Amino acid sequence: MLKLLQLKQITIIVTANCSKEKKRVEKTNYQSDLTFDEKVMMAIVRAAENFKRTHSIIFKKYGLSFPQYNILRVLESSDKGQNKISTVGKIMLVPGANMTGLAKRLEKQNFIIRKPDPGDERVTLLAITDKGKNTLKLIEDEKDKAIDIILKEFTKSDKDDLLNKTRKIIKSTTALNKGMVR
Description:
Elements: E1 2-7, E2 10-17, E3 22-28, H1 36-60, H2 66-76, E4 82-84, H3 85-92, H4 96-108, E5 112-117, E6 120-128, H5 130-150, H6 156-179
Antiparallel strand pairs: 1-2, 2-3, 4-6, 5-6
Helix pairs in contact: 1-5, 2-3, 3-4
């Protein structure tokens, strides 16, 4: 059994060995020196990581990773259930090389079909299959229940406010990233 106890500036980890009832205590002398603004941003990152971890567990039950699920969602929302691989990558903020690998694995599992664009054979189109659509339907209830649990303490007004503020952060970070020299 693992318990985390937070005591002011010291984190104590207690591990109990059930068969011998021995206890081991490890102490760390870490003290956060984050600014308040850094704490705000780190809280957002942690919330996003927890969301991703929770939903990855759900998607794994259906043979999908988090990015693979998102590809299926983008295709499901695209005209005729298909889109250019480059467009899907831009929507998901995934580089082309990574998209190719993700798409190949989805195709191998029959969730999508990769095909050349009839207008330009250099362009690859991704199209969601019936299996992909059906899998999204199977996932929907469990995914929605998890989201309901996460947001249960929030009113509609709270959610609107949070969404608007998060969009402001996305806009600011996007502008900052564009302005940075890489």
